Amino acid sequence: MSPGPAADSAFRTGMLTAVLVGLSAIGGLYWIGMFSPAIAGYALVLVFPLYLVVAASVLSVWLGYGADATDLRPVYREG
Q: Is residue 38 in a domain?
């Protein structure tokens, strides 16, 4: 059973929120002087994408998108 359109909308909203929070945090820390330009660039290029992967993983499990080996079905070619 798939999670449905409400879960799709919640995932999209959650990811947009995660992007806004992450970019706001990096920008805010840079603006108040806690991050140098080099550290802010490092955070944007290396840390921010990892943060988004973790956020997507947490949201997908929470919303019921998680699949394991019991959900797999064999695939056959028609031919």
A: yes
